[in-house]
Amino acid sequence: MGRRNITHVSDFILMGLTDSEEIQLVLFTLFLLMYLFTVLGNAGMLLVICLDLQLHTPMYFFLSHLSFLDLSFSTAVTPKTLDNFLTSNKHISYLNCFIQMNCFVFVGVTECVLLSSMAYDRYAAICNPLHYPVVMSTRRCCSLVFGSFLIGFMDTFVNVLCLSRLHFCDSNVIYHFFCDAPPVLALSCTDTRDIEITISIFAGSTLVVSLITIAVSYVSILSTILKITSTSGKQKAFSTCTSHLLSVTIFYGTTIFTYVKPSKSYSLGQDQVVSVFYSIVTPMLNPLIYSLRNKEVKNALRRVLQKRKSSKKLK
What we know:
Elements: E1 11-14, H1 21-51, H2 58-86, E2 91-93, H3 94-127, H4 132-135, H5 138-163, E3 173-174, H6 181-187, H7 193-227, H8 231-259, H9 268-292, H10 295-314
Parallel strand pairs: 1-3
Antiparallel strand pairs: 1-2
């Protein structure tokens, strides 16, 4: 237990999702398409928000950072997964494995806190509309985003300190398609009980505080919406929250299913399928959720395209 950074393993083997070459080819095509949609959707969302001045509001300020995190989330996992589908060499170096795992933790925790900040923004917009510009000032928005990244960094730092105590003796086979904490901890020769407790306390407290913030915000929002007399007013108020609620449900639902349970109940097949959802599918869905259900984004996209056409005509 007193020995640190001692390992007899120079690399790991990622077993992936299946051994069948035919299924691997199908999954490669599917994952590649999802990754392309993720890159195009999130990069497109970032571009539209940056170019259209009417979207320079707190809501879209948070959404631009969510798009950046989703892009990073998928990029941390998908390229290596695609490579493993096409090659027989499924090795990943010890260093790259831990870089991937900690990047994944950083982005995941940061997104978790950012989603709670977005819930607070919706609360301020609906429950306190007259003071909204003051409550959600540029300084407050920047502080909330900075706080999200800071908490993500702190949780990742704790994760790095804990994982640096691990050493691996014999097996280097990870039964997963990326370096995730549960299967990596299962390989260690070190007694991981204290490490698991420490990681769970820090990650769990972040998750609980974020969920409480979201729950309190939406209870207040629902209470305010019910007091609105006109049906159109209720629909307009609720429509500003549906996209965020859908993102929260998908992200937190899959995360809680995977991590907030006893380690003994770890199920390889179930956890791999759920991991596909929160690491690859969710980053692809978010730009679709926020663009297809949002008239402001659609109108902003039209304005950006019209400006581009008019500028070409002038040339």
